[in-house]
Every structure is written in C-alpha cells, then in structure tokens.
Design goal:
Elements: E1 2-8, E2 20-23, H1 31-51, H2 68-77, H3 93-106, E3 109-113, E4 116-117, E5 132-137
Parallel strand pairs: 1-5
Antiparallel strand pairs: 1-2, 3-4, 3-5
Helix pairs in contact: 1-3
Amino acid sequence: MKIYLQQKRPGRARQAIAPCPIELPAGLNTTGALISSLVRIMVSAYNDRIDNVPADPDADRQASPIAEDQVENLAEAGRIAFGLICNSKKEDPEKAIANALQCHEDGIFKMFLNGSQLGPNESRIEITDGDTLTIVRLTMLSGRMW
C-alpha cells in the first residue's frame, strides 16, 4: 500500500516538506502498528545509507559538486544536504520502535491521517492507498515562571 508522508516542524519558514511516497505493508490497523512499520522502514533506510558511506570520508573528495538543478530540487523539499552521515553507528530497530511509541504516548509528536488526528497507540485506524500521513514534531518552549 502506498501512502504519502509529510513531516512538519514548527518554527521553519517553510512549514511543509514535500510529501514523499512510502510503501507500507498491508494489515496495519492500529496507530502503534503504523508507527512501528514507519520506524522499521526509516531505520532500514538509514542503516542502508551507512553501508554505502566510504570508510574514509576524504577519499570521495574527487566527486563532482551538486548541480544547480539538484540544489533547487533539494531547496524545494526544504533541506539541502550533501549525503554525509557523521554517525556511522547502525541503529537498532527495536529500540527505535520502543522510543517512537513512547514519544507518541508522551505527546512529543502528533500524527494526522488525511487531516484527522490519530489517537493513542492502541486506537484503530483504516489506511487506504493514496492517503496522506502528516507527522508534526512538537517543540517544548522553555522559559521562566511568572
């Protein structure tokens, strides 16, 4: 099943990052199962990128610079990156899933499926092909008391 994922972060000039298509397995019927599936996909993609990073970052200095049209495409998506990964440690998917589920319970981020907010991890959901999932990471404001 193919859905579109949007990630939003408060405080940026451009609030939305271009929706990216993501392929989910069928049979996801709870919010927790959706979070677990998304985290598995993202951790797997991250670990695959680590495998493709050269052992010596200076060895790839002869690579061509990013073309101007690539910079424009990345700018439209909201972030210009050069593909460098500073941390070469692979992530454990089970720890990442536990962390994401706890963060959702604690209200660190909110999820919206086609504009309606998803409930707790145990709540039932219906996902269809072509739905839009929006994830909003909430920022805690700090300051002193009155």
